[in-house]
Amino acid sequence: MVKFIPTPIGNVEDITVRALREFERTTLFLCEDTRETKRLLKILERRVNMRYPEGADFISFHEHNGESRLREIGFRLKDESVVYVSDAGTPNISDPGQLLVEYCQREKIDYDVLTGATALTTAYCASGFDSGKFSFIGFLPHKGAKRREELSDIMGSPLDTILYESPHRVERLLREIVDIDGDRELFIAKELTKLHQLYIRDSAKDILEMFHNSTLNSRGEWVVIIKGKPTDRDSLSVDDIINMDIPPKVKSKLLSKITKLTTKEWYGRLKNNSK
Known about the structure:
Elements: E1 2-4, H1 17-24, E2 28-31, H2 34-48, E3 57-60, H3 66-73, E4 82-85, H4 97-107, E5 111-113, H5 119-127, E6 134-139, H6 144-156, E7 160-165, H7 170-181, E8 185-190, E9 198-203, H8 204-212, E10 222-226, H9 238-242, H10 248-258, H11 263-273
Parallel strand pairs: 1-4, 1-5, 2-3, 2-4, 6-7
Antiparallel strand pairs: 7-10, 8-9, 8-10
Helix pairs in contact: 6-7, 7-8, 10-11
C-alpha cells in the first residue's frame, strides 16, 4: 500500500502523530529529494524519538524520473509499506506525486492520502479575504508571452488567486501586477510557519514600494494572493442577455463581449438552441 504523507512546510512540530506512525513502519520511501527526507527524519529522531525500520530504502521520485521509477519499483507497491513525501507540504499539489496516484488507480493498488500542512490554505486562512472562493495556480511560467497571458487572466478573474513565487522573482511579479492594476489588494506571506514568517496585506503598489525602500527583502519562499477583480453588480449576465427579446445577431455580439466565445460561436449556439 502507498501512503502520501504531508511533511511540515517550515516548523517541524507541524508533523502529525499519524505521519510519525506511518514513517515507523515504512520499508520504501519515495522522495521528491532523498536528502531532504533523510534530513527531516533525522530531526524527528532527535526530537520525538521516532524510529523507522533499519534497511528502509530511499528512492528519488520526481518529475524527471517518475515514469522510469515506476517501471523499476512498481511491483513493490502492492505488498510493501510505501510512503511518498515531497520536500515540504502536502503531496500531489504542484508536485510529481500525482503521477504515482494515477499509477495506483490504474494498477488497482491501495493508497491513502493523509491530511497535513499546505502553504496555499495556510496563507488563504491568514489573508482575511472573505469571498471563500479562490483558484490555485502554483508557479506562473518563468517568462514570455505565456506568463503575461496567465497573469492577465488572473487579474481579470473575480476569484481570489493563490500563487507561489521564488525569492528572485517576487519583485518582478509585483511590478507586473502594478503595471496592470497597482491598486489591487494583495496578501503576501513569506516563510510560512518559520522563524521569520511575515504577513502583509496592502495594495500592490504599496507592497512594491516596501521592496524599493528596502523594508522587505525577497529571500525565502513566498505565497502571493491576488484579490479577485470586483464585479459590476449592474452588469448583464449571460442568462440576462440570452433571455432578451432581441435579434440573435445582436445577442451574439453582446455575449461575445462578456465571454471568451466569438460572435460566430454564440450565433451558432443560439441558432441550434432555437431549433
